[in-house]
Amino acid sequence: MKRYCLALDLKDDPQLIAEYEYWHKAENGWPEIKKSILDAGITEMQIYRTGNRLMMIMETNDQFDAAAKAAADATNPKVQEWEQLMWKFQQPLPWAKEGEKWVLMEQIFQL
């Protein structure tokens, strides 16, 4: 098992943040998106928010390959539709690379 923590900012607008949270409730999520996540080897995913900052925790099987997931997403029309919808609410972190949304966080402490 591998664990990844990633960060992203939402646009600092309470109405957009509420709508983003609406889309992430279990009953409003798209089944095709859940399937693409599970098919990639992601076994657990959680998103936390404080203000407009998001943190995602992903746990994956040992075969998970982020580049393969990105390639599969790029050719999946439903994932692309979801990403376009989500970009309405999201904004890159100031230090994100060109075209990067979620930024991988570096672990600096463990108890």
From TrEMBL:
What stretches pass through the bilayer? none
Q: Which GO terms describe its molecular function?
A: racemase and epimerase activity, acting on carbohydrates and derivatives
Which Gene3D superfamilies does the annotation name? 3.30.70.100
Q: Name one Pfam family in it.
A: rhaM
Q: Which domain of life is it from?
A: Bacteria
For this protein, the record's SUPFAM superfamilies field holds: Dimeric alpha+beta barrel
Kindly give the PANTHER family that the UniProt entry links to this protein: UPF0734 PROTEIN DDB_G0273871/DDB_G0273177, UPF0734 PROTEIN DDB_G0273871_DDB_G0273177
Can you say what this protein is called? L-rhamnose mutarotase
